[in-house]
Amino acid sequence: MTGPLAILGPGTLGLSTARWAAECGIETRLLGRDRAHAEAGLKRIHTDWNRAVERGRMSSAERGMAAGRLSAEGFGPAALQGASAFLEALPEAIEIKHPALAAASEWGAASLLVLTGTSAISISELALRSKLSGRLVGFHLFVPVPRMAVVEMAVAPGTLPGWVEQAGDLGKALKKRVVQVRDQPGFAAARMALAQGLEAMRLLEAGIASAEDLDALMTLGYGHPVGPLELSDRVGLDLRLRIAEGLAAAGEARFQPPSALRALVDAGHTGIRAQQGFHHWQEGRRTS
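The structure corresponding to this sequence follows.
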């Protein structure tokens, strides 16, 4: 890329991506609703870098070089001046995403690569609402971005090949294996993970085994790094519910959410962020 990568959304995905992009040698702008919002996110990244240096995972020189590539700005026309690519990393709701994408395409240059970090929303629908048909590319990175070695690139019918090629090049610059999938609600990764998670929830609901034991079957029996219920807690049960509801509403009955999932979300027990889901959590660690 000749210009910076602008990332909108100083949440978990945006911060993880901005940190990694800077470490990969990419000039990066972290954007928030205003400069203060973005700078608060930037402070968290610097805290992570300081901790990495203290633990010997990063040298002081590497921290300094990465920090020099990362800046924070409020989302607006000036933030996109000279940018080569824009990645929207906002909450998983089309009503939040499409106005931001439309604004970025209006404020940025005609050559700006416009990407959405959604893991499940149809790119065709999102592009239509954002007036980006033929241009918008899905760029689903997995958190934590520095550790996960793949990006799921969702391409809608009619997307111009040049945009797809540029998105793939960015994925490689981020040191990821680029897996291109055909656009559909849930893409491929979310559908596979969700199907396993929902089945585990149904087994738990039926009293077949405990949450801990169901997860152990998949970690100890199949070698998965985490079980499907723990993964659901980590992803966020509210997000899992929204994706499942969307797929079920589209006529895919196998994704109908179990009542156990609805009950937890209704109670505010949405997983790791709430410190309670199918498991109990404290400071990012499972306690049960």
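The chain has two domains: 5-182, 189-278.
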